[in-house]
Task: structure prediction
Amino acid sequence: MKLNLYNTLSRKKEEFTPINDTVRIYSCGPTVYSFAHIGNFRAYVFMDTLRRVLKYNGYTLKHAMNITDVGHLESDADEGEDKIAKAAKKENKNPYEIAKYYTDIFLMDFDRLNIDRPEIICKATDHIKEMIEYVSDIVKNGYGYETSRGIYFDISKLDKYPVLSDRKVDEQIAGARVEIDKEKRNPEDFALWIKAPESHIMKWESPWGLCYPGWHIECSAMSNKYLGEEFDIHTGGIDHIPTHHENEIAQCKGRCGRIPARFWMHCNFLTVDGGKMSKSLGNIYTINTLMKRGIDPIAYKLFCFSSHYRNQLNFTFEGIEAANKSLTRLREGFRNHLDGNDEISDEEILEIKSRFEEAINDDLNMPSAMGVVWETIRCPKKSRKIAELLLKFDEVLGIKMDEKPEKEVDIPEEIMKLVEERNQARKDKNWELSDKLRDIIKEKGYTVIDAKDGTKLEHN
Ligand code: AMP
Ligand code: ZN
Result:
C-alpha cells in the first residue's frame, strides 16, 4: 500500500519512497534547560507515530535525534543569552549538570509515553569538532564571513531564501525588534559560530578564537555525520519552519550544494486557551503534572491522536481525563476479545485491517485510524483473531493495549475481601449470601462481573 506524507517543502502530500533500503530520519530534539512540557511531547508523539508507521510498512530505520545542550539563545534571531548557561547561573550549577539533569528526565518521560527511541541520540557538545569543520567548509565555499561577533552565513549567496515558507524576508526585518548589526552583509544573515565574551561559560578553541556554536549548525553537522549529505525525512515543530530549518537548509546548500532532506515534516502546536503552550509564556504542564492527577502518561498519546498532527490541538483537563478513560476502555475491550470464541472470517479481519492501513498511510491520519480501532473494539463478535488484530494496530499506536486496565489494578482491599467472601459463597452454592454480597459491593461503587476466567470488577 502507498504511503503518502505531507512535505512542507512542496506544500503537498507526496508518495514516500526512501533513497536507500534504510529510511534515514533526523529529528530536532529538546533544548535541555528545563522540564520538557506536554507541548514539546506532542512533537515527539508525532515523531514516534512516524517511526511506527514506517516500521509497520516494513522499513528499517536509521534515525538521529539531537539534544541541544549548547547554542540555543533566548531569541531565534541570535539575540540574548544561551538558555543552558542562563539556567546554570540561576540554579547555581554548571551547564553540563543542568543539561544532564533535564536530559535524564526527558528520556524518562519518553519511556513513560512509550515513545520508540531513535537509533541515535546525539548531544551538541559531543560534536564541536564536526561543527567547526562544517563552518570552515561554508566559509571556504564563500557562504560565510567573519565579523567582530562571529561567523555569519551570507544569505545573498543562495539561489533562493527562504524555501520552506513563503514569508517575506523584508517584512520580517521591518517588524523585528532586533537591533541592526551593521557588520552583517544582509539583515537576515545568521550566526554560524559566535565569539564568546570573557564571562561566557561554554566556549571552545576554534580557528576564530574561543567561540560557541550558533543553534542551527549542530543539526547540520550531526545529520551530516550520522545520515550523510542527503537523507529521507527531517522532522520538527512548525516553529522550526521559518528560522531553524530554513537556516539548516541554507547551511547545507553552502557546504554540500543541496537541501539535506527530501521530506520536511512539521507538527502543529499544542495550545492552551487558544495560545501556544510554551515555557516562556509560563502556561506549561508536564507529564508529571498529569501523573499527579492520576492520568496514565500513555493517555496523552490518545489525546494527541484526537487531532491530525498538522492541526492545532487545544489542551484541557476534561480532554485528557476523557482520554484516560478511553485508554481503560480500550484495554478492557481488548481483553473481551482475547476471551472471546465467536467466529469471524479472515475477509472481515482483512477488511478492517486495510481501512486502518489506509488511514495511517494517508499522512498519519490518526483520528481516522482511531475510528477504525474503536469500531474494532466495539465489534459485537468477540474473538481472539480481533485481539490479535488490535495488537497489530498497537504496533503503530504504542499504547500497550495488552496492559491490565487501570480499574482491575486499583481495587481497595475492603472490596477485594468482599469479593473473596462472595467467591467462597458461590463455591458453597450459597446463592443468597452471594447475591447479598454482590449488592453490598455495588453499594460501595463496584459492579461484579462473573466471567469465564474469574470474577471481574468495574466502577459503577
Ligand atoms: P525546544 O525544547 O524548545 O527546542 O522544543 C522541542 C520541540 O518541541 C520542538 O520540536 C518544538 O517545535 C516543539 N514544541 C514546542 N512547543 C510546542 C507546542 N506548544 N506544541 C507542539 N510542539 C511544541
Ligand atoms: Zn534542529
